[in-house]
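Hi team,

As requested, here is the filled-out complex form for the flavin mononucleotide run. I kept the field names the same as last time so the parser does not choke. Let me know if anything looks off before we queue the next batch.

— J.
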Amino acid sequence: MTFSPELEEKFARLLTIYPEGRQRSAVVPMLMFAQDEVGHVTPELIEEIAKRIGIPTVQIEEVVTYYSMLHQKPMGKYHVQICTNVSCMLTGGTELWERACQKLGIGHLQRTGDGQISLEEVECIGACSWAPALQVNYDFHHNVTPEKLDEILEACRKVN
Amino acid sequence: MTKLYNEPSPLETRVLTKRFGLPNSASLDTYLATDGYVAIRKAIEMTQDDVINEVKASNLRGRGGAGFPTGMKWGFVPRSSPKPKYIVVNADESEPGTCKDRLLMEYDPHQLIEGMMIAGRAVDAKAGYIYIRGEYRYLIDIMDKAIAEAYQRGYLGKNLFGSDFSFDCYTHTGAGAYECGEESALLESLEGKRGVPRIRPPFPAVVGAWQCPTILNNVETFCAVPPIIRDGGAAFAALGVPKAGGTRLTCLSGHLNKPGVYELALGFPLDKMINEVGGGIPNGRKLKAFIPGGSSCPILTAAECEGLTMDYDSMANAKTMLGSGGVVVMDDTTDMVKVALRIMRFYAHESCGWCIPCREGTAWLRKILTRFVDGMGTKQDINLIGDLAHNMLGRTFCPLGDAAALPTISIVEKFRDEFEAYLARTTVSIPVQSDLPVLQPGM
Amino acid sequence: MAELVSLTIDGRTVQVPPGTLVIDAAKKIGVEVPAFCYYEGLSLQAACRMCLVEVEKMPKLMAGCTLPVAEGMVVRTETPTIAKARKSTLEFLLTNHPLDCPVCDKGGECELQDMVFRYGAGESRYTEIKHHVDEKQWSPVVYFDAPRCILCYRCVRICDEGMGVGALGVINRGVVSEIAPNKTDHLECDECGMCIDICPVGALTSGAYRYKTRPWEMQHVGTICTHCSNGCKTTLGVRNNEIMRGDNRDQSGVNGEFLCIKGRYAFDFYHHQERLQSPLVRKNGKLEPVSWKEALEAAAARLKAARDAGSKIGVIGSTRTSNEENFYLQKFARLGLGTNHIDHHRTGDVVTLLDALSGQKDALATTADLYEKPAIVVLGADLALEHPLLSFQIRANFRHHQARVYAVTEKPVREDKYAAAAIRCDAAGELAALETLREKLANEPELVIVFGDTVKGDAVRKLVAFGSSLGKPVKYVALVDYSNSRGAMDMGLVPELLPGYRPSGQTGMSAGEMVASGDLDMLYIVGANPLEGGQPLGGKPFVIVHEMFLTETAQAADIVFPASSAYEKNGTVTSVTGEVQQLKKAVQAMGTKPDLEILGLLVREMGLAAQIGPWTPDKVFQEIRETVPGYNMPLPVIATGGAVQTAPVNGRIEVDARPDLVRSSRDGLFTSGTLGRYSKVLNSVVEGRHHT
Ligand SMILES: Cc1cc2nc3c(=O)[nH]c(=O)nc-3n(C[C@H](O)[C@H](O)[C@H](O)COP(=O)(O)O)c2cc1C
Ligand code: SF4
Ligand code: FES
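And here is what came back:
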């Protein structure tokens, strides 16, 4: 597999920051950064990382399937993650989630037909004091109201 | 970046957060202009024992949740071991209700770096890793930038400040797993594996990252160290209550007029925290239930909250915990059955699956509670929920099982009437759904 | 030795070394603490929470499988609280477990079933929908039914730690966690079946056995695997004269819990459709089935005539027949037929080793030594493929005792992964390479050297000289291929040696010479296939063969006797490490007779009975014990299924041992000489591998 020079540079650095012989430590960061570029964790990506780290692919699969941010199927260009955990639930997070599902006609870990937006109901994202909250890719949105949600989704739909 | 997520409160004791809101608070220059990297120079002059003793004197207890005395933990590291030693920062912050470590890294990354360095100096560790939850990607950029700046200007690297002390610092991203906040699971994850906890003992202080002695603390714990070394442990201790020194970043969320993260001295009155710091409960509603420190704590009723102060002993007396600093306030409109379900959904989703009681117990409870909320609960279910939670309690491989059981037990015990009300509402007709439970006669 | 720690378990005091786990300390006084994930010898998991015990002064129940003992500790393993905890854990476990024990392949020998029986979690309060996943087939022999899996991780560990393969992993998280194979939907591994054997429930089942029978319908016959020289005990489950499965049920053999694919599944050659069931005699150029009487009379007449005429008779013995058969065969050849042209396929230079070691004591390693000695040298052999048990022992030694392992081989080997040193060298360059390790080896307190067929003749002498020069106790294993390769040598199936390595004083033809030479009048072949490669038989000898199948050699015969396999007879065999163990008859294959009986009947037919002696296995073994040096071993140990190492002949073996004839066939895990061809399981696995 080929990656962008920036990602290659990141990989190269990751392989130097852990103690000698402990390069397996780079697996999770490599998968995360690669997913950002590739879109999701493909079988080829698993093979590639296994090869680079020098461990069997099954050990990468063990990791990929464990972490909820690593996806083995394609997500939307904008992955909208709405928190419904307690603090958000108390302040309208559940309603935001239902509204988003309804507006987009998709559910948990599904994406719109055009591949533009995907939805995920997530556990606490660390924004409880500014709840309800959501993340679009890695960007936080705090104190989200239904109107704000509509705007966010609208923006995701449009931007290319 | 300098805009704060919420207005500060005049009732705060701002020690760790003193740079919050300053222009360019994350920059090295701002840090240097406000006592930055003073403590580490001091620590280099001190003996290692003195550094540890100062931390002990501060009565600093871990801010990650368990509240273990930090100085004592550092003292467990076998300094004479020939193995390299490591510093690991727990920045996994995923306990529901908690959102403070984020701010410490966002607004004052150098304070964290300096705290790590002092820990490194105390136990002869040459490198530190900050394990940041995957969702906090922007913090990796902020921390990396701060680290790069520190290297550039000689605050990280070899032979710092002309001494023989060297220290390297790195960030490491998680990828979405609450269990990776548990210290031994975090170490497994740091080693590129599934975030499954390790058998303890040995504790990380003795056998930690890459099988080497490791100091592992919460972000806030490390951030408290520079002020402690700079101004002395005693000064820090004096801010709190006798057995627990200092302040805590308290994350107020839920039904409040002014939710937000506030640095409050330990022992701060609960009532004052809700009504003055948090601005009280909106719409003239009354307090119904209170989570003192993340969803893993037993929930208190309004009556139980009376007269409590926010510190370890006071909470222990009320049979709950100070936990992670995530305070969730629920008003009298709150549906406690739904809260119980939401909490259990979280633990079932996050159970690593390693041990039987947690793996199966959380999943089963989630199913029962879902059924209950969907109007298909039975009277027996109420007892069953409590019973199953009790059957998990104290029997799981790591504390996640307890974390799931404790709030559940407290909710069924304290809000049983709400469960019964659900029954009253729904006994007439049971809606037919595709996922009706399958009754298995006999077995 | 450190002071012992004293503690109380269920009111009884027990003293154990510090660091002992409570579960093991309890076992010492006969208290069994229930456990799923704890498995002696494998890494600790503390995952199943069945082993919870009460410890005084501790607030919570503690996991006995990870709790080290402490002085004065007071432990209780069975109290109402504990029983309730275990019952509730079982209740949890059963929530997503199918409750169809009556149709589960594991029924009757399922640890979960037993545990529920014991703690009575028979009633479940679980009324929700069970999490279901379809059953999967991971290889011709491995099936996985995820819902039955209790996630004890035994399979993952035995594959990784025990086998050094690591083909299994755990995927997903929480309640949907699942064991997964290394190739996403299938396995690429040794196919040893250890995972199946170790699985406490019916999650992993054997494609070769599943749903064929119930365990209680079988008789269990512990015998010795006939495929390679490692001498693993395989317990054959027999129902109605049919072998249903092989396993290591009571773990009483030299192999303990180990078995490879061949020991576990490849017994199936015995009922291959091409198995010979009747004697054959060549009539008008064609082999025709005849009665035993006719065949025996014909053979006896030809043999007698040939002997009386002073014709040249050659005898080729087998590397799989029992010691008794081999002993009797050589006696028949030498005394009855008056020939010294007797040989077998030699696969390791045992003779030179024994000669070079003359005068040394305790210099032959046992299987146990490979697990116990602090340092092991592997010289010119890929043990994981060719000697799986020895490889398993060495791995366990490394895991449990941190043994230093030195691999000196031509190609990369599995031992490399954990070896203290791994050196590559040309075949026959082993000694030079070994020399580079001299300093390290000289620092070892004790050493075992295992060497393959490239080290032979002079090289063996040099190796022993090298070992002696280290000034430390050194033990050796000369690797040989087949289940009784060693016994064939010990029993004198070579021209130059009588049983027990006494010089015969005569020379004779080697097997290869017998096949190639044109001047033999008769060739008598027992259980060997010298024409396997397709080479023609020199000259036109009259050929008599004992065989299970119509092999290339049997096809060239004039008379063929249908012989029993090792699983159809009693007797003894001698393993690669010289350990003598008992074969026990599990089944009777129709129409066949053990080679010993065939020989005995011939002897009687030829009127030689008085001279050659009785032909029951017991009587012959008794004669071996009395007359063959090294075999005077305690009968009860052998008779009860134990293993005894033959004593070495402790004196010079003054013969030219023909090391040039030593050649290993290099059979790997999925091949086994002629037998392998008739094993459907081995073939299916080999085919499966080619498809992926
Ligand atoms: C399930 C579980 C999740 C945890 N999550 C976190 C976390 O997100 N952040 C944290 O600092 N500590 C967390 N902890 C606590 C850590 O195990 C550990 O006690 C802490 O990081 C030690 O640091 P401290 O002494 O500074 O608190 C968690 C513990 C458990 C059992
Ligand atoms: S398959 Fe069997 S051995 Fe493996 S984890 Fe599941 S129950 Fe345990
Ligand atoms: S509960 Fe929603 S961000 Fe914390």
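Two things worth flagging: Chain A has two domains: 5-66, 78-158. Chain A has seven helices and five strands.

Thanks,
J.
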